[in-house]
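Worked example

This section walks through a single chain of length 796. The input is the sequence exactly as stored; nothing has been trimmed or padded.
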Amino acid sequence: MSRRRHSDGDDGGQSHKRRRTSEPVEIEDRLESLICRVGEKSTSSLESNLEGLAGVLEADLPNYKNKILRILCAVARLLPEKLTVYTTLVGLLNARNYNFGGEFVEAMIRQLKETLKANLYTEALYLVRFLCDLVNCHVIAAPSMVAMFENFVSVTQEEDVPQVRSDWFVYAVLSSLPWVGKELYEKKDAEMDRLLNQIDGYLKRRLKTHVPMLQVWTAEKPHPQEEYLDCLFAQIQKLKKDRWQERHILRPYIAFDSVLCEALQHNLPPFTPPAHMPDCQYPMPRVIFRMFDYTDAPEGPVMPGSHSVERFVIEDNLHNIIKSHWKERKTCAAQLLSYPGKNKIPLNYHIVEVIFGELFQLPCPPHIDVMYTTLLIELCKLQPGSLPQVLAQATEMMYVRLDTMNTTCIDRLLNWFSHHLSNFQFRWSWDDWVDCLALDADKPKPKFVKEVLEKCMRLSYHQRIVDIVPPTFSALIPADPIFFYKYQDEANSALPGYAVAIAVGNAIKNRASNEEILTVLKDVPNPNQEDDDDEGEGFNPLKIEVFLQTLLHLAAKSFSHSFSALAKFHEILKALTDCDEGKLHILRVVYEVWRNHPQMVSVLVDKLIRTQIVDCAAVANWLFSPNMAHEFTRFYVWEILHSTIRKMNKHVQKIQKELEEAKDKLERQQHKKQKDSGDEEDMEKNSEDEDGQLEEQIERLQEKVESAQSEQKNLFLVIFQRFIMMLTEHLVRCETGSVDFSTPWYKNCIERLQQIFLMHHVTIHQYMGTLENLLFTAELDHHILAVYQQFCALQL
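Given that input, the structure is written out below as tokens.
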């Protein structure tokens, strides 16, 4: 007992001591929690919560001012959906403590400069908007905000800078005006008119070559697919015409007007936008996604028009909620559905449009594709009585518009739709899509349904798909994914290599060694050699066919069996494919035996690249070869190609990283040697040896990087060269035959070319000079060259 009491006393003493030292930390955590949670659901009103919090923070300012400044700057940057809540809080603090208000404004300007230098343009946008809203809270004087805007717009006059730089600064001004336009116009109307006229002039002269590449739909009906700056400018013009009246921004500071209007205001320090640097990465331009208008949501509140600023504010807020909570689908769905002012708008329609807008955003969505699927499933669970109907309506609309939909977006649509169906027992009103059965198989609608069913089969099994789809759709149901082994039937015993295939099968079953199997394979006749030709072995396609068909046949039970087989006989496969023709042939054989099972083809090709049995260029050459022409528009072909490119890119990045690390290590060692230069000779000798080893390693890595980059450049050259050849042949054939070149095949092919540019734009930019000199020359057909010019315009 006494021991326990003693230890209790000890623990108590320690915990008391710990509590004393950690008290400031506890208070800091409490302050952070209070600030971050203000504006969430509460029994008290937002106004009383803000007033209470301002009192708490004011009392803690003497001891925790820096911490409070840091937290408020962070929420301004990271929680844009609660922007006006925090500006009101800062306004209340400024009214009580003028010096704190000044320090906060200075800290925000510092943070804005840092985010711009770090290429964090989205966060910089939120900071600009926050500063604007502080004008409404009487923290910042309106004239100094107008002066800052004038500096932003002056960027449009800079010479030799990318258009995307000017675009960002113009967007920063326009996107802030829904919050602060009224206040600025009341104080500085002439200056604001001049500012908007300058922006108008800039928008009229800016190039829009990039727009076709970023549109989800090529058709302008039923909804125009507008460039983002044009759309926002039209919304601001309408807002100005409506005397800056908008009804969707929460403005808690209005309740404190009597307090805030008494506060002293601060002038923003002069802000010069940081100069353009070669490593600046500005956001890419966008096209605004539109799927619904007021006619699509007949019941309940009316949907704001596409040029009303309410549409911009609602969509912007919904995007911000997704950005803040995308990693937690349940929280994200709950936050979207509890959007403030939801009773004034058809919220479900807005949410569905915003989610698909992000999913279809080109070149790539802000978050991983699967996040949008899980978020929509979660929303359907939370609103089972209304959201599934809106989602079904949206799916039907997209199906109807498939003819003009971008191929990349069709890929994402079929991935989402098949995954979604798999979570709802694959239930769908297939009979509503019976119109696709009367169309040519290469038209977008039947193609889409076929690909969806194939993707569904990956997520279940063949018989299940046969059972859920009406019999009328039998032509579009995927083939049974069986293995084709040509040496299985005795009727084929006359085939060359039949006897060897049986012998190889027995050898594998009897666990023969690699040498024994290669000995058996020596008996395979070479169809490429004459009988009297004794000159070495050469490339023997039949040998590859006999061995690989037999091996994959024995391992056809599952993915795992196939992977194990490739790993076990890696040495033989490498020996059989030591030339380019061998690598191409091994891919042909994989396709031949698994032609009814695209998923198996995809994963086996992936495995062959990983184990270096084939290289990336061989895969590209195979996919563009005449043997695969009939499969060229299939989804899985492009899945394989993009996966191949990504592997190549990752390989280059990995070696580059190793090289950078080795260089850093050498630099650190040399720096340390300079510091310790007074030490003994033997230490110096050791460090020289280490330096020598590192220098050798760096040299080796440098060679590896150059070799990998050369391989990477070659891969892109192969891909683009094949595209140009195929498209040119098609255009010449159509011109000679006087027929329209714009066939479903042509649309698919030209949009796949766009897709390669968009999905791998960062890597392709490194090789622009080579591409321009060798492939995309002025002599090229203008239809193909236009794609390259659109790509170049994305970063102009």
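What to look for: Residues 1-21, 531-536 have pLDDT under 50 and may be disordered.
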